[in-house]
Specification:
This protein is an alpha+beta fold and 201 residues long. It has three domains: 60 residues, SH3 type barrels (Roll), CATH 2.30.30; 46 residues, Wheat Germ Agglutinin (Isolectin 2), domain 1 (2-Layer Sandwich), CATH 3.30.60.130; 76 residues, His-Me finger endonuclease fold, CATH 3.40.1800. Helix content is 18%, strand content 34%. The strands form five sheets. Strands 1, 2, 3, 4, 5, 6, 7 and 8 form an eight-stranded antiparallel β-sheet that branches. A hairpin with a 2-residue loop joins strand 11 and strand 12. The two termini are 42 Å apart. The protein binds zinc ion (ZN) (2 copies).
Length: 201
């Protein structure tokens, strides 16, 4: 036992600032969480996906062994909503020597990640300025010089919220930004984290 539970029904009483709401409300079915307090017939559960606390009837909460979830098992926990779902609900990413590798996010969460704002007028105009194949290019982030389409791939970088183009960056920096999910705060967090742990600094 490692303390994790799955909440089967997806309903309960939300607890905000220590106060239990009067009306029962819904959350995602099969949300994964941890029991915070045993209250007899009910339990206070912390749901990791939504970072919220709920009072839920004890019989709707099931203990799970999270080490027995994932691609090799019948059920997998989504890394965004943190619901326990049938492993087929996660799109196949690739096959490797050890078998099928699936996406870490469930199909439902992926649809909202992939949702992009439509191209704006600004985007259509800026796109024409994209450096042409064979032209020299300096990436505004890593400052690396390249020959477009020959020594580096150049990516049109969109702001997925507005649909506008921010600029042109190299493929490698685009992957880097993608890791931070285009969240400004994540980048700042990374900078602060590195500064905090920089022993030379
Ligand atoms: Zn999900
Ligand atoms: Zn770059």
């Amino acid at each position: 036992m490692n303390g994790w539970v799955v909440c089967r029904q997806g309903k309960g009483y939300l607890v905000k600032n220590g106060i239990q709401e009067k009306l029962e409300t819904n959350f995602n079915k099969d949300s994964v969480g941890m029991i915070n307090e045993d209250r007899g017939d009910s339990v206070l559960v912390w749901l990791i996906g939504s970072d919220s606390y709920w009072i839920i009837p004890k019989n709707e909460v099931e203990e799970i062994d999270v080490t027995k979830t994932g691609d090799k098992f019948d059920f997998k926990i989504c890394n965004v909503c943190h619901c326990l779902k049938p492993t087929e609900n996660f799109a196949r990413n690739q096959n490797n020597l050890r078998g099928i590798v699936r996406r870490p996010s469930c199909q439902k969460c992926r649809t909202s990640i992939d949702k992009r704002a439509p191209k704006t007028k600004q985007a259509k105009q800026t796109e024409k300025q994209k450096p042409k194949k064979g032209e020299p290019f300096t990436c505004p982030i890593c400052r690396k010089r390249s020959i477009v389409g020959i020594t580096a791939k150049i990516i049109v970088d969109h702001d997925h919220h507005t649909g506008n183009i921010r600029g042109f960056i190299c493929d490698s920096c685009n992957t880097g930004l993608g890791r931070f999910k285009n969240g400004e705060n994540y980048l700042m967090n990374a900078v602060n984290y590195i500064k905090e742990h920089d022993t030379l600094g």
